[in-house]
Design goal:
The complex is a heterodimer of chains A (113) and B (114).
Chain A (H helix, E strand, L loop, with lengths): L4 E3 L2 E4 L5 E6 L6 E7 L6 E7 L2 E4 L8 E4 L6 E5 L8 E8 L7 E2 L3 E5 L1
Parallel strand pairs in A: 2-11
Antiparallel strand pairs in A: 1-3, 3-8, 4-5, 4-9, 5-6, 7-8, 9-10, 9-11
Chain B lengths: L3 E2 L4 E5 L4 E7 L6 E7 L6 E7 L4 E4 L2 E6 L4 E6 L8 E8 L9 E2 L3 E6 L1
Parallel strand pairs in B: 2-11
Antiparallel strand pairs in B: 1-3, 3-8, 4-5, 4-9, 6-7, 7-8, 9-10, 9-11
Classes of the chains: A mainly beta (113), B mainly beta (114).
């Protein structure tokens, strides 16, 4: 069956620009997570959605980062005024209920020049 | 402060031998632990997990051991196969919390030589 998909797979942008990263979770999965993986590091938690609401956004590094999930399915991570330090692979994961294993997408590699 | 630590960045073993990947954690609240496997340009794939009420969980060639008193877990792969070559991440979470966010280690690159 279809797994978690993320678009685009690669995004190159210039410092100061705005970017949107999209995540399509597995159908029926109510829990959705965003993680960020910097070079040489493990994935780091950014935000968690249960349904449409952001239940935990404690991992967002600052107010330039924002995420939405308006219909409880697709989610978009939005980054304003990008900085070179935002360069990383952004991973999305979904799970059927909050205590089940998380299924990860392939990630979006963001490069800020 | 790294709450989940994988102190070996890489490990190389011969095909057919045992691979042992180690992980340490510092947060006593963690009560569920997972291992993920990651190939280049792919997302992490769930491998095996263990609850803090157990000390061992086995699934085919993969076994995870948990030593709560030492805050240490390990993943054993027997026998190792070339297709097991990947980055392995140890992850932990607190299932009594409001969500199931995972805290990951930095990963260990396993290379299995034919």
């Amino acid at each position: 069956g279809a797994g978690v998909s993320q678009t685009p797979s690669n995004k190159v942008t210039e410092k100061g620009k705005y970017v949107e990263l999209r995540c399509d979770p597995i159908s029926g999965h109510t829990a959705l997570y965003w993680y960020r993986q910097s070079l040489g590091q493990g994935p780091e938690f950014l935000i968690y959605f249960q349904g449409t609401g952001a239940a935990d956004d404690s991992g967002l590094p600052n107010d330039r980062f924002f995420a939405v999930r308006p219909e409880g399915s697709v989610s978009t991570l939005k980054i304003q005024r990008t900085e070179r330090g935002d360069s990383a692979v952004y991973l999305c994961a979904s799970s059927q209920v909050i205590y089940n294993e998380q299924f990860f997408g392939p990630g979006t590699r963001l490069t800020v020049l | 402060d790294q709450q989940v630590k994988q102190n070996s960045p890489s490990l190389s073993v011969q095909e057919g031998r045992i691979s042992i990947l180690n992980c340490d954690y510092t947060n006593s609240m963690f009560d569920y632990f997972l291992w993920y496997k990651k190939y280049p340009a792919e997302g992490p794939t769930f491998l095996i997990s263990i609850s803090s009420i157990k000390d061992k969980n086995e699934d085919g060639r993969f076994t995870v051991f948990l030593n709560k008193s030492a805050k240490h877990l390990s993943l054993h792969i027997v026998p190792s196969q070339p297709g097991d070559s990947a980055v392995y991440f140890c992850a932990a979470t607190f299932r009594g919390g409001s969500n199931y966010k995972l805290t990951f280690g930095k990963g260990t690159l396993l290379t299995v030589n034919p």
